[in-house]
Amino acid sequence: MADILNTPLTAWHESHGAKMAPFAGWNMPIQYEGILAEHKHTRESASVFDICHMGEFIISGPGVKEALMKAVSHSLAELAPGRCRYGFILNEHGGVIDDCIIYNLDNDSYMVVVNAACADIDFKTLSSRLAGFSCEDISAQTAKIDLQGPKSVEIMEAFLGENLHDLPYFAFRDTTWQGKPLKVSRTGYTGELGYELYIDSASALDLWEGLLKDERVKPAGLGARDTLRMEAGLCLYGHELDTEHTPVEAGLGVMMKSQADYVGKAGLATVRERLLPLEVEGRRAPRHGDKLALNGEEVGRITSGTFAPSLGKAIAFAWVRADKAEETAFTIVTPRAKLAAHVTTLPFYKKGTARTKLNPAK
To answer: Which residues pair with 328 in a beta bridge?
Structure first.
């Protein structure tokens, strides 16, 4: 605990009664008034999340696009400035070193946003693969705050005094707030309409408190963030994604459209296991590592499981042997009980507003 890191908002969380816990080496808020309440508020209105633990790099230099396309799986050839894309940093065998979003700043400059637990190895990997280009770690001076929920566009427009209806999904723009540079990205990890906001760390507290002045906004912790992302069918690194599995095995092969000869591409053809989404009978949720059985034979294991507040039932992801991945019903073996589960389709929760098309003429 001596080396645990704090975000610019840690003192605020503690002074406002948040339950804190270590996450990826950071002291993070898990909940305030409760996971269920925060989950519900995000689905119905809007919540702010402290995501300052994430890592951000700037990769730049003439011709960097072509080099970056060989370093990551992202299809960047047609990605215009002002747009961003989700993808992966792979190892030589196609396993996932990390999943990340890459922002095209101006074709010769890109921002890479990575997971906190992987930030160090990500930076070393990209720096090695992009020798001769500038690779700058701006994580320490960059704060990231997410506003997520169906009312977030109206809240952000009132907050900034500008139109955001013309900003499509997975697009971003640079603006200012109180004279400070602010990057507004229409992205998120909840399945709801929302924005990821990047600002200098010194201004993080002012931005956080400014957003909370709107009575429609409440703070939410990582507990609700996890139940929200599970319902949205989104993977979590270290659970559904890891160095031993490829994105194709994780059901994300549709994203592997890059024509570049990127590191790990050849390994995508090997499929040993498949990631399956499961609905579980009852409200008891399985946990990471629980065994998955078919006719008494162990054929896989749970990667994530939770009670889904919006659905009133338990849901889970599981790795399953490829030769058993066409089956539709399994038994989850937990330390306390055996749970019946069946394969379903993603997203688990199908009423999310993340991809809502907004009228740009508003």
So the answer is: none
pLDDT score of 305 more than 80: yes
Q: How far apart are CA 211 and CA 207, in angstroms?
A: 6
Residue type at 228 in one-letter notation: L
Average pLDDT of the chain, as a whole number: 97
* The amino acid at 256: M
The structure tokens listed for 72 are 């990551």
Neighbouring C-beta atoms of residue 332, cutoff 10 Å: 27
Which CATH class for the 10-54+140-231 domain? alpha beta
Domain boundaries, the chain: 10-54+140-231, 56-133, 272-343
Q: Is the pLDDT of residue 361 over 80?
A: no
Show the DSSP H helices in 97-137 as ranges: 119-129
Closest among 255, 99, 85, 48 to 170, alpha carbons compared? 85
Contact 102, 87 (CB under 8 A): yes
| Distance of alpha carbon 2 from alpha carbon 119, whole angstroms | 20
Q: Which residues contact 34 (CB under 8 A, 6 or more apart)?
A: none
- How many CB atoms neighbour CB 296 within 10 A? 7
Do 204 and 139 contact (CB within 8 A), yes or no?
no
pLDDT tens readout for residues 50-104: 999 999 999 999 999 999 999 999 999 999 999 999 999 999 999 999 999 999 9
CATH number of 56-133: 3.30.70.1400
Nearest of 77, 137, 134, 149 to residue 112 by alpha carbon: 137
* CA–CA dist 152, 160 (Å, integer): 12
CATH of domain 272-343: 2.40.30.110
Cβ atoms of residues 170 and 187 within 8 Å? yes
State the pLDDT at residue 2: 57
pTM, to two decimals? 0.97
**Could you count the other beta carbons within 10 Å of the beta carbon of residue 11?**
11
